[in-house]
Design a protein that fits this description.
alpha/beta, 18 strands, globular, 7-stranded mixed sheet, 33% helix, single chain
C-alpha cells in the first residue's frame, strides 16, 4: 500500500494534539483520527446542565505537569492561573472545630493554622522541611521529563539527595510520613497526592503510591496546580489550533478499529470507520497511539496486554451552586476554604480505613474526597445568564475502585455519591443540597461519573485516568522496550504518545512531545 501519511495519530486527546503540532511544524504529513465528535479527550469543557451557560472542565480539571516550554514551542497561548490557597482541611478535635489552611502567599498564616491544629510548632517545621525537599527534587526531575529517558542511576545522580531518593523512589511513602509527621490530619493531607486516581495505601510495597505522589509534586518544577483560564477546553482548543496551523489534519467521528504495525520494509497501516461508518485504511511511516496501551494491543490483534487489567479508583462530581455553603468553621472565609483543594475525610486513618473497606468490597464510610471551585479563580467559564453569586464545585472522590461498580454500576454510583455528599455535609453548617442551582428542567445541577462511566465515555480501561499504573521516570538497565524517549512498543513503526508512556499521566503533553522527538530522531 502506498504510504499516504508520514504519521497517523490514534486519538485526538491533548497528547495527540501536541505530537501533531510538533510533527506538522517539522514538515511531516500528519493525520489525527478521533473517535468522538470533538478533539480534546478527557481535557474538555462542556455545558453539563441543560439550559445553564456554565462550561465545566468535565473530566480533568487542573494543570501542573504541562511544561511552559511545550506551549512556547507550539505557539500556544493559554493562561494558567496560580491558586494562592493550596489547601483547606476541616477538623474537629477535643470539642474544637477548625480547619488547616495552607496559604501559599502567607507563610505566617499557614504556621498559625498548623499551631491551632497541633498546639505546637513541630508539625509546621516538619512540613516546611519535607516540601522543601520535594521542591528540590521537582527542580531536578521536571526538566528531565522532556529529555531522553534517563536510567535509574542517571536520575538518582541528578536528584543528588540520598534521603529524598530513598523516601520517594525506594521505600513506601508511609514510612517517611510516619517518621516526619506526628499529626493524623497533616499526614493525611500529604498522602492524598499519592492516591489521586490510584487505588493504593501508604505502605503499598509496589510503590504505586510513591509514583503517583512524585508526579503530583514535581509539576512545573514547583508542584503547583494551576487553573486553566477558560476551562480545560481552552487548553486543548489552543493545542488543536496549533496542530492545524502546523498542517496536521484532524478528523473526528473516526473510530480506529485495527493497526497493522508493518515491517522493516513496509509501512504501517491503520483501519478505521469514518464519520459515515465507511471502512477505510490508510498507510503511515509511523503510528502514534494516544489510547491506552491495552487498547493498542487490542487494535494490534492481541489480547490486551499482560498482567492485571488497569483499574481506576475515583468518583468525579461536577456541580453548580447558587452560592458557596457556610462552614462549621466560622473563622475562615469560605472563598479561601474552597479556593484551593478542600479535603474531606482525608486524615491518615480515614484514608487507610477507606482503602481497607474497598478491598473488602464496601464503599468507604466516611467517603474521602477533595473539592475545588474553578469559578473563584476564573469567572470566564460562567456565561452572562448565570447569577453573580453562583459558583462551580468539582469533587474528586478517592478509594472507590472500579471493581466496586461491576455488579450494579448505577446503584453503586448513586450510593457513592450519597457517601461523598454526606461526608461533605458533615463539615458544613448547612446542607449542600440547599445551595445547588437547578437546570432548565428544575433538576439539581449535579453530575456524577464513576470509573465505569469514564471507561464508557473515554475508553479509559477500568476508568484508569492514567491509562495504567504510573511508572517512575527512568528505565531499568536496557531501555530497548521503551526506546530512547520512553514511548516505544517493541514495534519500530508504532509508538505510544498518551498517558500510558513511561512519563505519562495528567494533562502534560509530555508523552506527545516525546513521541514526536522519537519520530524526528532528536
Amino acid at each position: 500500500m502506498t504510504v499516504a501519511y508520514d504519521v497517523v495519530i490514534v486519538g485526538g486527546g491533548h497528547n495527540g494534539l501536541v505530537a501533531a503540532g510538533y510533527l506538522g511544524r517539522a514538515g511531516l504529513r500528519v493525520l489525527v483520527l478521533e473517535r468522538l465528535g470533538h478533539v480534546g479527550g478527557a481535557a474538555v469543557s462542556e455545558r453539563a446542565f441543560a439550559g445553564v451557560d456554565a462550561r465545566l472542565s468535565r473530566y480533568s480539571y487542573l494543570v501542573s505537569l504541562l511544561p511552559r516550554r511545550i506551549l512556547a514551542e507550539l505557539g500556544v497561548r493559554v493562561e494558567l492561573r496560580r491558586r494562592r490557597i493550596s489547601s483547606y482541611t476541616p477538623w474537629e478535635r477535643d470539642g474544637r472545630v477548625g480547619g488547616l489552611l495552607v496559604d501559599g502567599g502567607d507563610e505566617r498564616r499557614t504556621a498559625e493554622s498548623f499551631r491551632e491544629l497541633t498546639r505546637g510548632e513541630r508539625e509546621f517545621a516538619a512540613w516546611r522541611e519535607f516540601y522543601g525537599m520535594t521542591g528540590r527534587v521537582a527542580e531536578r526531575v521536571f526538566p528531565s521529563l522532556t529529555e531522553p529517558l534517563p536510567s535509574r542511576a542517571e536520575l538518582r545522580a541528578r536528584v543528588d539527595d540520598p534521603v529524598a531518593w530513598a523516601e520517594l523512589f525506594e521505600r513506601p511513602l508511609g514510612e517517611a510520613l510516619e517518621r516526619r509527621f506526628a499529626d493524623d490530619v497533616v499526614r493525611g493531607v500529604v498522602l492524598t497526592d499519592a492516591l489521586i486516581g490510584t487505588f493504593s495505601h501508604a505502605h503499598d510495597p509496589s510503590l504505586r503510591q510513591n509514583r503517583c505522589f512524585l508526579y503530583h509534586v514535581v509539576g512545573g518544577g514547583t508542584g503547583d496546580w494551576d487553573v486553566p483560564v477558560g476551562g480545560m477546553g481552552a487548553v486543548t482548543g489552543a493545542l488543536a489550533e496549533a496542530a492545524l496551523a502546523g498542517g496536521a489534519e484532524l478528523r473526528t467521528g473516526c473510530e480506529v478499529v485495527a493497526v497493522d504495525p508493518g515491517g522493516a520494509a513496509g509501512p504501517a497501516e491503520v483501519g478505521y470507520l469514518d464519520a459515515d461508518g465507511v471502512q477505510r485504511r490508510v498507510g503511515a511511516r509511523w503510528v502514534l497511539c494516544n489510547a491506552a496501551p491495552v487498547e493498542l494491543e487490542r487494535l494490534l490483534g492481541g489480547g490486551g496486554g499482560e498482567g492485571p487489567a488497569p483499574e481506576g479508583a475515583q468518583l468525579k462530581v461536577n456541580m453548580l451552586l447558587r452560592r458557596l455553603p457556610r462552614l462549621r468553621d466560622g473563622a475562615v472565609d469560605v472563598r479561601d476554604a474552597f479556593g484551593g483543594t478542600f479535603h474531606v475525610a482525608e486524615s491518615y486513618r480515614e484514608l487507610e480505613g477507606a482503602y481497607r473497606a474497598a478491598v473488602a468490597g464496601r464503599l468507604p464510610s466516611p467517603a474521602p474526597s477533595e473539592i475545588y471551585c474553578h469559578s473563584l479563580a476564573d469567572r470566564s467559564i460562567l456565561g452572562p445568564g448565570v447569577p453573580a453569586g453562583a459558583q462551580t464545585l468539582t469533587l474528586f472522590g478517592l478509594q472507590v475502585p472500579a471493581r466496586l461498580f461491576a455488579g450494579d454500576p448505577e446503584g453503586v454510583r448513586e450510593a457513592a455519591l450519597a457517601g461523598v455528599l454526606a461526608a461533605l455535609d458533615g463539615v458544613l453548617a448547612e446542607p449542600l443540597a440547599d445551595c445547588l442551582a437547578v437546570d432548565a428542567q428544575g433538576r439539581p445541577c449535579l453530575e456524577v461519573r464513576g470509573p465505569l462511566d469514564l471507561e464508557a465515555d473515554l475508553r479509559l480501561p477500568g476508568g484508569n485516568i492514567f491509562h495504567r499504573d504510573l511508572a517512575f521516570p527512568f528505565h531499568e538497565g536496557d531501555p530497548a522496550d521503551v526506546g530512547r524517549w520512553g514511548v516505544g512498543t517493541g514495534r519500530p513503526r508504532v509508538l505510544v504518545c498518551g498517558a500510558g508512556a513511561v512519563r505519562g499521566g495528567g494533562v502534560s503533553g509530555i508523552p506527545g512531545h516525546n513521541a514526536a522527538m522519537a519520530v524526528l530522531g532528536r
